[in-house]
Amino acid sequence: MIKDKKEVFETVIHVGESHVYYKGGIGAVLAVYKKYFPAFKAIGTQRHISGLGKILYFSGNFIKLFFTLLVNRKIRIIHIHGSYGASVLRKALIAFTGRTIFSKKIIYHIHSSEYPQKYTVAPKFHRRMIDYLLHKSDRVGCLTPKWQELYINQFGLSNTVVIPNMIHPPEFSFGLKVFPVAGQPIRFAFLGLIHEKKGVFDLIEMLAKEKANFAGKVIFHLGGIGKVEELQAGIRMHGLEDLVDFMGWVDEAGKAKLYQDVDAFFLPSYNEGLPIVILESMSYGLPIIATNVGGIPEVMEDGRNGFLFESGDIAGMKKALERYVNDHELLAEHGRNSHEMVKKFFPENVVPGIEKVYRELLDQ
Question: Are 42 and 116 found together in one domain?
Answer without folding.
Answer: yes
